[in-house]
Amino acid sequence: MLPFVLAARVLEPVLALWQRRTGHAGMIAVFLIPNMTIFGIFVIVPLVLNLLYSFTGGAEILLEQRPWVGMQQYERLLDCQNHLQPMTCREDQFWRAVHNTARFVLSQVALMVTVSMITALILNRRIAGRGLWRAVFFFPVLLSPVVVGLIWRWILQREGLLNLIVVRLGGDPVIWLNDRFWAFAAAVGVSTWAHMGFYTLILLAGLQAIPRDLYEAAEMDATPPSRVFWRITLPLLGPNLAVVLVLALIRAVQIFDEAYVLTGGGPGTATMFMTQYIYEVGFASFLRNPGLAAAASILMGGLLVVLTLIQLALSRRAERMRQR
Amino acid sequence: MKRLWLGLSALVLAAASAQAEPVPVRILWYSDGNEGEVISELLDRFEAANPDIDVILENVAFQVIQEQLPVQLASGTGPDIARVTNLKAQAEHWLDMRPYLADPAYWEANFGDRLDWMREDGSDAITGFMTQLTMTGGFVNLTLFEQAGVALPGPEATWDEWIEASRQVMESQGLPAAFAIDRSGHRITGPNLSYGANYIGPDGLPAPVDEGTMAFVSRLVEWTGQGLMLPDTWVSAAGTTYRAAADDFANGTIPFYYSGSWQVANLSAKIGDAFDWAAIGSPCGTVGCSGMPGGAGLVAIRYTQHPEAVARVMDYLASEPVVREFSERTLFLPAHAGIVAAGDLAFRSEDPNVPPALERFVQASRETLPAANALPAWQWANTYYGALVTRISQVMAGELSLDQARELIDRDIADQVAAAR
Amino acid sequence: MTGLKTFITRRRGHGGRWHWTDVASWIWLIGGTILMLGPALWLLSSSFKDPAQLAEFPPTLLPYVQRVAEVEGFDTPLPLYTVTLPGGETRILAQIRRLGANAQMVDPADPALRISVPISQRAPLREIGLATANYTDPFLHFDFFTYLRNSVFVTVTATLLTLLTNSMAAFALSKYRFRGRDAVMLVIVGTLMVPLSVILVPLYSVVSRVGLLDSLWGVILPTIATPTGVFLLRQYMLTIPDELIEAARMDHASEWQIYWRIVLPLSAPALAVLAIFSVVWRWNDFLWPLIVLTRRELYTLQVGLNSYAGELNVQWHYILAMTVVTMIPVVLVFILLQRFITTGIAGAGLK
């Protein structure tokens, strides 16, 4: 930190002079330029380039060597006789990925919200060692996705811990990641395992903001607990819950690292999600097509922007409600 | 005046130190076994004798070679030398070292057979040499066969006979599966060819999937469905991801494993004393008993700033004593014609299973079909392999029928060919 | 003692009786703890097993090493086995070699006598022990310290720069009204959720053009202008009352002083959250460094970890051990700053 403090000391008179010359407008520029320059070079420019890639064809990697093909990549991606049947599509793998992602998002978000809600409700009780429990549930949030994927692949493999338990209980070992159902369930479960602590904390904060006297009043009226939950807890938690829902949704659409390390997209393509499709088509060495990958990523990016805007609107509403 | 002197002497000093500054040569290297350590020692000796060259060995994951190196090469950058398996398709980026090599005739004489694997069609450039030759082939767990009382199929036995024998071992010993093949298009190509497959069309472009390919592939799918092939390797990944079953074989999970010569050192280390094993070459199909030749090549990169230094490093690494020591210590089959002809390589291993296994692979390399020898020098080979793996594992997972897969493989390949035009 | 008991059993309180929800809560918490910590402990235990033991099924819960004995007439120690002899008697014998389905054994007490035993009748004699070579080898034979140094450099530099640039931008976006402010916010928010993997190819070519390939700065710079950070800090700064700033202006404080001496200290909780997350993100970054860095002396830990996976074989014993090592700083950060993280996310993360 020390160099920063010293630099700030030196900067102070210089910037004061600058302010006298240019006024507030000049200072706004000073504050914004470092961040926005980096942001422009490393986020905006690549995004624009990505858009350009999606209008080009061929196998070359450098943009200037790629021929312009207009909307062809998009047409190829969206070309389907029946969008619910991947096999009728020109790019069957892409639509398999879309279907898998949709199923994943629905099941993972449902599981995530349920599990973190229950955990938050329990942690909101006057239970011993609350800080410790909170820490335990939060711990996996800090692990790298690669580590998370590796740990669970290690546990779920044929010779893994889970099969040890199954065998001890008298069952036959199952090759979990080889079974369409179990592999998908593992992807859902592991990503929930890794991130539930984060959502639990958000919900817990919301629960703790609910005034105690409301509950005390309910208790005095001998209101049944289920009614308290539906009538007091849930409505007052509404904004937090909505934000958790949308955040979880956005993260679920983007699922990649953990699932990729865990299942590699298999069995077959049962756990291949959109990001993996983009990554494989863009980078996998044998069947590379950067234009198609770029087009797919633009489609996915559009979806994410919509979801983000919903999240923004919801958190605005949450803020307004809190201020009231 | 004094200042001038100081300045001048500083300049002279700078010039002197610039002269003594060794030329850096970067080698991008991946390892499967101990070859990283061996090459590092060999290079240390080179540096000691050549203080004007600083060789920097970068040990990277194979993924870096597969996914990053192509991007670097496309943008005209990269290391000076790289160890690569996808040699033909990237041949435009390799350096023709002929003007810089001490004795190009030595290279032609000893590595001439495989120079076509790593240069563009029609060129007679010398771009590098094979650090190892590989040959695909089967391994068998002799101890499991003996315990099951099942006789080993004879030398001319077919795939069907081998899988049947392995099935008997599996049932007698209560094993989870009878055999496994690595998840790789390259690995199933030898068997495909043995059933009469041909990948290369008359115009040099990919031919449609034929009956020969389907003959073996449909068997493979059937064996997977019957629970004979270990599903872990093929079914449990999507795309072109590579998966090996070496650990399952080393673990005694399967009595029969189809992989290749590069596994010998790895198996020897992992199996140790646990059971006896042997290499059996490739089982037969209808037209032959072919494996697939292949290997990793060390190539010079065109974008290097120091081609002379690169050529000196390559001359050293390709020299007979260095290739000999490298092969003996890594248990890799050498590509050096002189060494092969001498036939006196003393592989350094105390494992009694190793020498006969390597011997069997050398023999197997004489049993390959002509089609197998043509593939490593064919530009579209990896595209074909990639499409095969992707689609066949979907069939095994029950997502596609064989006929659908056949159509899609043709389409995937056609897409790639069209994109490259 | 009774105090402890009431502390542990304190609960919702229905006249001191245990309500079924109390039982359910405790079951949930204990089950959850096993599920949350179990995998990490399993990883820890596995990381101390040697390659042969890692390949075993069923796996043992704890790491073991084979016991060996010095036997007269043999240069190297021989592995010990528990052998069931034909009579049903069990003895501890040392194995000389295995031949097919039989093993040639010797009694360490009586080295002259050789016994042939079917291998199905012997079981290795092992004791709990640690295969520490999994940890020491990477440190001795691979450039693990270099990776560690690079990771620390990337993490620290990127975090400091993130805090500085993001907070400056957030200050401008929260405390000034100017034309285009909403547009800037919209762009930032719009890119909030674009995953890296989506712009990988073009980002690579941009970094290549500005000459940052194969340099740690190529890893650091693209990560510091995080939209998340700007967004989070701006939302927090909005809650700082404008009156404070007006008062400072009255006292002739320059705008920079207002930012540096008033707003920044007041934003400490949000900065702490961003700092913690930035450290964790940068420490865990994998895909991007993997693509930018090819020179081994520049590898970060996560990339180094990946280099244990060759084309044909994955060296699990090293991967597991090094995974544990890379987890240590994250766990430490967590233990030391737990309070900040949990209250910070709850407080600042959700506005």
Automatic annotation (TrEMBL), chain A:
- Sequence intervals crossing the membrane: 28-53, 104-123, 135-155, 181-207, 228-250, 292-314
CDD domains assigned to the protein according to its UniProt record, in alphabetical order: TM_PBP2 (cd06261)
A GO cellular component entry from the record: plasma membrane
- Asked if the keyword Transport belongs to this entry, the reply reads yes
UniProt KW keywords: Cell membrane, Membrane, Transmembrane, Transmembrane helix, Transport
Subcellular location(s) of the protein:
Cell membrane
Q: How does it sit in the membrane?
A: Multi-pass membrane protein
Q: Which InterPro entries match?
A: ABC_transporter_permease (IPR051393), MetI-like (IPR000515), MetI-like_sf (IPR035906)
The answer to whether keyword Transmembrane helix applies is yes
- A Pfam family found in this protein is BPD_transp_1
Extract one GO BP annotation from the record. transmembrane transport
PANTHER family, per the entry: ABC TRANSPORTER PERMEASE PROTEIN, INNER MEMBRANE ABC TRANSPORTER PERMEASE PROTEIN YCJO
UniProt similarity note: Belongs to the binding-protein-dependent transport system permease family.
UniProt protein name: Carbohydrate ABC transporter membrane protein 1, CUT1 family
Q: What is the lineage of its organism?
A: Bacteria, Pseudomonadati, Pseudomonadota, Alphaproteobacteria, Rhodobacterales
Automatic annotation (TrEMBL), chain B:
The yes or no answer to whether the keyword Membrane is present is no
Going by the UniProt record, its keywords in alphabetical order are: Signal
Where, subcellularly, is it found? Periplasm
Q: Which InterPro entries match?
A: Bact_solute-bd_prot1, SBP
State a single Pfam family of this protein. Answer: SBP_bac_1
* Any Gene Ontology CC annotation: periplasmic space
Q: Where is the signal peptide?
A: 1-20
Q: What family name appears in the similarity comment?
A: Belongs to the bacterial solute-binding protein 1 family.
Question: Would you tell me the protein name for this molecule?
Answer: Carbohydrate ABC transporter substrate-binding protein, CUT1 family
Q: What is the lineage of its organism?
A: Bacteria, Pseudomonadati, Pseudomonadota, Alphaproteobacteria, Rhodobacterales
Automatic annotation (TrEMBL), chain C:
- GO terms for biological process? transmembrane transport
Q: Which residues cross the membrane?
A: 20-44, 152-171, 183-204, 216-237, 258-281, 316-337
Tree of life domain: Bacteria
Question: By its UniProt entry, which InterPro entries does this protein fall under?
Answer: MetI-like, MetI-like_sf
Q: Where in the cell is it found?
A: Cell membrane
Membrane topology annotation: Multi-pass membrane protein
Q: Which UniProt keywords apply?
A: Cell membrane, Membrane, Transmembrane, Transmembrane helix, Transport
Is Cell membrane among this UniProt entry's keywords?
A: yes
Instruction: List residues of the ABC transmembrane type-1 domain.
Output: 148-337
Give me the Gene Ontology terms describing cellular component: plasma membrane
Task: Please give the CDD domains that the UniProt record associates with this protein.
Answer: TM_PBP2
Q: Which family does it belong to?
A: Belongs to the binding-protein-dependent transport system permease family.
Q: What is this protein called?
A: Carbohydrate ABC transporter membrane protein 2, CUT1 family
The organism of origin for this protein: Rubellimicrobium thermophilum DSM 16684
